[in-house]
Amino acid sequence: MEDDGKSSPKLPIPGKRNILITSALPYVNNVPHLGNIIGCVLSADVYARYCRLRGYNAIYICGTDEYGTATETKALEENCTPKEICDKYHAIHKEVYDWFDISFDKFGRTSTPEQTEVCQAIFKKLWDNKWLSENTMQQLYCDTCKKFLADRLVEGSCPFEGCNYDSARGDQCEKCGKLLNPTELKDPKCKVCQNTPRIRDTDHLFIELPLLKDRLEEYINETSVTGSWSQNAIQTTNAWLRDGLRQRCITRDLKWGVPVPHEKYKEKVFYVWFDAPIGYVSITSCYTSEWEKWWKNPENVELYQFMGKDNVPFHTVIVTEYLNYEDGKFSKSKGVGVFGNDVKDTNIPVEVWRYYLLTNRPEVSDTSFSWTDLQAKLNGELLNNLGNFVNRVLSFIAKPDNAGYGSVIPDAHDAESHPLTKSLAEKVEKFVAEYVEAMEKVKLKQGLKTAMLISSEGNFYLQTSQFWKLYKEDKPLCAVVIRTAAGLVHLLAQLLEPFMPSFSCEVFKQLNLPPQFSLSDERGEVLLASRPWDILPPSHRIGTPQPLFKELENDVVTQYREKFAGSQADRRARDEAANLTDQLNKTKLSDAKKQKASSSKGGGKPKPQPAADREITMARLDIRVGKIVKAEKHPKADTLYVEEIDVGGGEIRTVVSGLVKYIPLEEMQNRMVCVLCNLKPVKMRDIVSQAMVLAASSSDGSKVELVEPPESANIGERVTFPGFEGEPDDVLNPKKKVWETLLVDLNTNENLVACYKDVPFTTSAGVCKVSSISNGTIR
């Protein structure tokens, strides 16, 4: 939400890091969709929150881009004035961003007197410096509408070879990204009446970009390095320069815009590409009259700008790629995708939407939104990993004295002498350092991933310590584990506040702490992460623990996919949409049974669900520690081995595996292996394979290694995944694609540990590993 205006505006402070953050000004002609939100305002919000968390002096400026053809077009569609359109959609944008917990210092507008003042002042300086020229240009004129057509009032086929996109706008092709003039389009049509316009002469003003080429190149070469621009930003900018800078028109035959302060052109307005970037400055001037201290102070102010890749030529800054929707690109103009006002109607909390969008943040290439992926991340990562850890710790502390700690943080002595706790602290210290490094470089997705690794380590720490047994057998050591885990809960809330502020506020509420978040070097808070048992003081009384996330079920996901299929116009046209909306509003997400079971029973197992109804998680796989007692080549296949594997309880399974090319026969004998035991048996060259041996392959497929449990692991014990609890299916139903769904996230990390996403394959003796393949895939 925006600064309330009652506090004094922040100004740069000598000796401090002063950071000015902006995100691309969203057009006010429609409701923002998820692609807009992640590409611009949400990413910038995360970075702004991080800067505040670290104690930097940062402001976040944004607002609606309100002038230009897009607004006039929308006004025609809705039969009202451009001003009425702007008032309507500015309020909608503000409401959507408030719901998403966007923490603007100022969210303004470009249709203000301040915008006119700054824009006209810049124009006059350009005119005085002779960087502008006058020229007659040919422009499309619609005889039916009796006016010149601005670029966005024309659509046609892209003229560039290899593209030929048939819905290219007059200013830019959405598909190939090339900038266009409307007269370059093939088969142009007036967007208002659909008739073919004709070409007429009209006088306009141009900025002479070729005169600025040397200055631009010098600025770009220096700033792209010092500012750590993304590769996409650098490549796109260099391509623009390489293709040759051309003079660009800065005026338009419109009424809705900043008037040109020149007698000859007083009936024209500035073209939106010239006017809109100036909006960052004018909105800052609405925030403080001393705006020049932010914008004309490069020695003391760092500027960070966030936008989608289609805006690179107009900014050349930090770039986010496109977020695509299911099978196609989000599009406001075509109404495709999930829109900001839609998400409030899904009953999915804001912290889930923020987390999902940020884990899918398209930083180096386009990524896609899908409902099943949202479901998997909510149920698997937020509910079973993060939510499970926090709830498990706090619920145990909240139990009465004979079963827990009566809601009071216990005192803990000699924590560093406990090897498991000391090992955890070393890992957490490393992760926090990596988090800070990633966030300083604006690698937001990496920062989030690193923070979530701490949650995974917390689950592993709890499970390995078996704190529920320690409570009965070694209470001093149990106090060490619980106070350390409570410190991790506090730390996670701090680290995740930039990403999920509502989650962090709720965690601090359950910790009985005010929602004041800080990770400052000056206060020693980063250093404190290496001693998590010291983060929360003993005798501190916590609040009331509550489950933090709720499970998203398959039938609800199906309903959402159907509800948001097609364009907005398609949705309105479907008669059943109203009934479906009513049904969705009545849908209740099921309670998070796993959280309650694990927290209330101290590690007990939740009641199993029928296999057909269960969510797809690693808990459904029966992966066991096995030992190969005999291996030989398949009698009918040169590339296959046949192994006899002891999987515990006196049971020997026959397994056929395609490892001949990669592992010598003698190295297969008496090996400890991880065996997937609940696949449906399959006949391979007349021999029935009753399980699967798990192996990792290198990225180029040239090397394959067995996933090995520790030598001291018990044969037949189940390989577990901290945070994913429950009984496995008896046999995986091939039609449900359980194995195939989970398979894509099996990997080896840089430490050679076998993982599902970031969660290690875990046994009573430690984690499972491979010999040398890091960042490999497991099959």
TrEMBL record:
GO biological process: methionyl-tRNA aminoacylation; post-embryonic development; reproductive structure development
Family membership: Belongs to the class-I aminoacyl-tRNA synthetase family.
GO function term, MF aspect, one: tRNA binding
Protein name in UniProt: methionine--tRNA ligase
Signal peptide interval: none
Class of enzymatic activity (EC top level): ligase
Alphabetical list of PROSITE patterns matching this protein: AA_TRNA_LIGASE_I, TRBD
Disordered: annotated span: 581-613
TRNA-binding domain mapped to chain residues: 617-720
Species of origin: Arabidopsis arenosa
Keywords of this entry: Aminoacyl-tRNA synthetase, ATP-binding, Cytoplasm, Ligase, Nucleotide-binding, Protein biosynthesis, RNA-binding, tRNA-binding
Cellular component terms per the entry's GO annotation: aminoacyl-tRNA synthetase multienzyme complex; cytosol
